[in-house]
Amino acid sequence: MLPPRLAPSSHLDNVRYEIRGPLARRALELEKAGKEIIKLNIGNPGAFGFRMPESMRAAMIENLHQADPYSHQKGIFQAREAVVMQQQSLGVMNVTADDVFIGNGVSELILLAMRALLNDGDEVLVPTPDYPLWTASVTLNGGKAVHYPCPPKKGFLPDIDELRKRVTPKTRAIVIITPNNPTGAVYPKELLQQMVAIAEEHNLVVFSDEIYDQITYDGAVHVPLATLVTKTLCATFGGLSKVYRACGLRVGWLSFAGEKSHAKDYFLALDLMASLRLCPNVPGQYAVQTAIGGYQSIYDLTKPGGRLYQTRQAVIDGVQRSKHLSVVAPQGAMYAFVKAKTPGFNDQKFALDLLERQHVLVAPGTSFNVPYQDHFRITLLPDEKTMAEVLGRIEALLDGYAAGKAGG
């Protein structure tokens, strides 16, 4: 007799991460059947031939002899001090090495930061669309993600009036993602100042996701939130995965600035959480100082003629030629959030059809906690020739929809 069904935790009932969900599992099945899938669902530079700077590899190799033991729970001093120096170079002067936590990627640090802060029923303001780990981490830790709209008609910039309406006595924090994943929006300074004013008025922790901070295009300027926040706590997240094309190292950092005197108990709680995971990956930490302090090769990729820039341009040009698509040109990060103008478009069905018929994997827009079903996200990581091929396949599928073939 079989045992009763092994039910998963109910804490996962409202947790979604469809970027690596059923569509990705179906793509793997197709690959096992011999199909070649173009995977545009994940911002994974190494899978598209990007390499981390060689100086980072050398730094890890040269320090392998001292990477066997656990490090301090916050990370090695050299890595934390490098983050301090980076923040100072940006104009953030009140960060010390004790204010920096190194993690196994930004993802781990987001989860630790929420676990140390939230009680059941606490609310966190999260943008929509969002990177879904933010909503998931709030939910997993007993909180409620309250989504503030960043609508397409505003270029995916936050609607300040709607944001203000969503603050309640239960609100503990606000999440700000700029440059934005999934939309590529880069928030202007004036808008960020308005968001900070709301946070400071209500004593909200500002969680600033800046993992794409140096990936901007056409003169867009990233403004570090910690340069604007003075009267409340500002937590800035960064890492090696995107700007330095080193996702597999799993190295991220979290630095605290702004008003910190009232947050001592929170820091102790976060230190406890860091201790429970023992320490971050040690070899990868030795790449941080070299990465932050060295030549910033990402700028070669984001300027005209650079690979990311040219693929972005291929997306903009291809969408302009399309009968079925529109897009707000991404000003930063490595994604485009594309809209389909096909009547009755369903992003989940489209993504499955595109995978099955055209062997292209994208992320449906609803994966990013939006209330509409007419968008999908693609990465800008393929070369421009591959991206042109992808857009041709998308156009062919949507042409079929328009002709009434197997439904849109």
Describe the protein in words.
The chain is α/β, with parallel strands linked by helices and 408 residues long. The protein folds into two domains: 10-51 and 299-402, Aspartate Aminotransferase, domain 1 (Alpha-Beta Complex), CATH 3.90.1150.10; 54-293, 3-Layer(aba) Sandwich (Aspartate Aminotransferase, domain 2), CATH 3.40.640.10. The chain is built from 14 helices and 13 strands. It has helices at residues 22-32, 54-62, 77-89, 105-117, 132-140, 160-165, 189-201, 264-276, 282-285, 288-293, 298-302, 307-321, 347-358, 384-402; strands at residues 38-39, 100-103, 123-128, 144-149, 171-177, 205-209, 233-239, 252-258, 325-327, 335-340, 360-361, 363-364, 375-379. The strands form three sheets. It has a seven-stranded mixed beta sheet. Strand 3 (123-128), helix 5 and strand 4 (144-149) form a beta-alpha-beta unit. Helix 1 (22-32) packs parallel to helix 13 and helix 4 (105-117) crosses helix 8 (264-276). The radius of gyration is 21 Å and the shape is globular. The model has no long low-confidence stretch (mean pLDDT 95).
